[in-house]
Write a structure and sequence with these properties.
alpha/beta, Nucleotidyltransferase, domain 5, 2 domains, six-stranded mixed beta sheet, 39% helix, five-stranded mixed beta sheet, 11 strands, 25% strand, single chain, 254 residues
């Protein structure tokens, strides 16, 4: 079995693969913890789902939080006896990286691109709704070019609440209409439907610039809700990042 971890700024997604089948997954907060805390946490999750840690033979980590990456790596080594593979642009990804500064690319963006190409083909755009919203473009020749980065939905809501005197802190419930009839509904419309327009506009401009018609795959915590109002998102794949980790591990563990 394979342990996969996607460590983000807000959440850490943990999964267990048995072959190509994702048999368990958890979404944790990305809080600073020691290697012992993380190791005990992980073994507790495995025990809870009756997965023997002795059956786990490999581990791979994608991280945008270096201190947590180090703590998880040490915890996994200490409690499972496994050295973790860490995703970076120097691994064999199965796609060409055409980014001007490959070392700057967030590991999760590369992982998403690998999974999208494998399952949906090229050209493809991946939209990931995380702490930041990222769009990543892979050409018809399977070259990862880069993309766009925007503030995440929660970051936008918190900015409105924190930088204004009267706007409330709202939850991301679907608005009933585009033209909000209350302050809260207006904010939800502006964020959720507004982000759908942002995505559609960027997808159109990327497609025009590259003179291609890519498929658009969305993933991340708010993908489902924004996709309702998007005319460009073709598919929502909630396990895209975990699947990409599995594919990269298999490609590089040979």
């Amino acid at each position: 079995m394979l342990l996969v971890l996607d460590i983000g700024n807000t959440h850490t997604c943990v999964g267990i693969f048995d072959g190509a089948c994702l048999i368990a997954d958890w979404r944790l907060t990305s809080e600073r913890r020691t290697e012992d805390e993380l190791g005990i946490y992980l073994t507790g999750l495995l025990n809870m789902t009756k997965i023997s840690q002795d059956l786990i033979s490999g581990s791979i980590i994608s991280s945008v939080v270096p201190p947590l990456e180090a703590a998880w790596s040490r915890g996994i080594c200490k409690y499972l006896g496994i050295e973790s593979m860490v995703v970076n642009s120097e691994l064999d990804l199965g796609i060409e990286v055409g980014y001007e500064a490959p070392a700057e690319i967030g590991a999760d963006r590369l992982v998403n691109a690998v999974a999208a190409v494998h399952h949906y083909g090229c050209p493809v755009i991946v939209v990931d709704f995380g702490t930041a919203v990222t769009l990543d473009y892979v050409t018809s020749n399977c070259v990862y070019l880069g993309g766009a980065i925007a503030p995440g939905l929660l970051a936008s809501i918190e900015a409105l609440f924190g930088k204004t005197a009267k706007l409330p802190l709202v939850t991301l419930e679907p608005p009933k209409r585009v033209v909000g009839r209350s302050t809260s509904e207006s904010m939800r419309s502006g964020i959720l439907i507004g982000y759908a327009g942002l995505i559609d506009g960027l997808v159109d401009r990327m497609s025009q610039e590259q003179k291609e018609t890519p498929k658009v795959i969305a993933t991340g915590g708010h993908a489902e809700i924004v996709a309702r109002w998007s005319s460009r998102i073709n598919t929502v794949d909630s396990n895209l990042t975990l699947e990409g980790l599995r594919l990269i591990y298999e490609q590089n563990a040979k």
